[in-house]
Amino acid sequence: MSKTEENLYAAFVGEAKASLRLKGFAQKADKEGYPQVARLFRAISAAEEVHALKHLRILDVIKDTQSNLEASFASEQTVRENIYPDFIKVAMEEGNKAAEVSFGHARDAEEFHGKLYKGALEHLVAETESSYSVCEVCGYVAEGAPPEECPVCLAPKERFKRVD
Ligand code: FE2
Ligand code: FE2
Ligand code: FE2
């Protein structure tokens, strides 16, 4: 990897983190009653996302859709089996209950993400059309309408966001 490719990757990671951090800041500004500041944070967040995606495209990380589905499936498996279990263990040892729950929700939701990728790979040619519902508490994703209760975190269906 050339120095510029390393820099592109570092810039991608930095911009992606900034974009998400600004989304968090926007939510907080809304809660604190600063809707205009929230708008500003959201606008800059969208701009940092533009930067992140541009760097990523130059890096050639984005392949054809079948390869992207395969890579995404593999990475769900890695985080579920190799990363989150260790993180959960350490959080328990350190008595950080919030982190333990957050890691646990993520680990459990990743399994469902993996299943959705697998299904998509199997039906890549004969695509069926449906929306998705994302649990805003734990990140579980359902195909179509949300369940009455989230199978991962038990949140009610009102906590789901539809993605078209
Ligand atoms: Fe930027
Ligand atoms: Fe995931
Ligand atoms: Fe959930």
Topology readout:
Blueprint: H1 3-31, H2 35-59, H3 65-93, H4 97-122, E1 132-135, E2 141-143, E3 160-163
Antiparallel strand pairs: 1-2, 1-3
The structure holds fe (ii) ion (FE2) (3 copies).
Residues 135, 137-138, 140, 150, 152-153, 155 line the site of one fe (ii) ion.
Explain this structure to me?
The protein is mainly alpha-helical and 164 residues long. It folds into two domains: 3-59, Up-down Bundle (Ferritin), CATH 1.20.1260.10; 65-163, Rubrerythrin, domain 2 (Single Sheet), CATH 2.20.28. Helices cover 66% and strands 7% of the residues. It has four helices and three strands. It has helices spanning 3-31, 35-59, 65-93, 97-122, and strands at residues 132-135, 141-143, 160-163. The protein has a three-stranded antiparallel sheet with strand order 2-1-3. A hairpin with a 5-residue loop joins strand 1 (132-135) and strand 2 (141-143). Helix 1 packs antiparallel against helix 2 (35-59). The longest helix is centred in the N-terminal third of the chain and has 29 residues, at 3-31. The termini are far apart. The mean pLDDT is 96. The structure holds fe (ii) ion (3 copies). One fe (ii) ion is lined by residues 15, 48, 51.
